[in-house]
């Protein structure tokens, strides 16, 4: 992960805040939402953007830590969702050095594509440490072109599954999904949702 990606997000923040907040979480997560816990749980939303999903999950009774390294997005999220008890943290993958505790769900929506292979490998190891017993890691993996100024590193679902298996994680689900954003659909972007549990 390089600082230029985070700078790219900071530079585009005014436009991105609007676009992120326009997404309906129930639609975004429709491929995996049946796997989300139904009892109040501890969730980390990593690369949380404006906290749209953190707010949605908080509304379902979960305790959510929203981890977002870009100050402009974090501040916008704190303001937009100030009525919801989201806990915010400035930290970043792959090391998540400031994160403590264990989580029932570790959510990585639309962030995995910004890590290179070495960072993904380190990140999987760190995510494994942060999983509570019976916990899940949910990752969406972008395919197709990236946005200018926010570089992505191509990878396949199989590579991530292999890395996860080496850390004792078993794939619970792999499903392809169209982009929920019309601009991205038109640009040929689609996604793979991957869900992992402990083997
Ligand atoms: C495409 S946005 C997705 C935001 C949010 N998860 C959503 O679905 O709307 C990618 C997010 O990942 C964050 N990000 C980029 N690199 C990161 C890293 N190394 N660690 C944590 N977050 C990162 C960006 O700042 C941005 O908020």
Give your account of this protein's structure:
The protein has about 200 residues and is α/β, with parallel strands linked by helices. The protein has one domain: 3-Layer(aba) Sandwich (Rossmann fold). The chain is built from 8 helices and 7 strands. It has a 7-stranded mixed sheet, with helices on both faces. Helix 6 (about 115-130) links the parallel strand 4 (about 105-110) and strand 5 (about 130-145). The longest helix is centred in the middle third of the chain and has 14 residues, at about 115-130. It is globular and about 40 Å long. The model has no long low-confidence stretch (mean pLDDT about 95). The structure holds S-adenosylmethionine.
Features:
199 residues; alpha/beta; Rossmann fold; seven-stranded mixed sheet; 8 helices; 7 strands; globular; binds S-adenosylmethionine
Summarize model confidence as the mean pLDDT: 95
Helix content: 25-40%
Tally of strands: 7
* Spatial separation of the terminal alpha carbons: 28 Å
Give the names of the bound compounds: S-adenosylmethionine
The largest sheet is:
7 strands, mixed
Number of domains: 1
Unreliable segments (pLDDT under 50, ≥5 consecutive)?
A: none
Can you list the strand order of the major beta sheet?
A: 3-2-1-4-5-7-6
Helix count?
8
Broad shape: globular
* Strand content bin: 25-35%
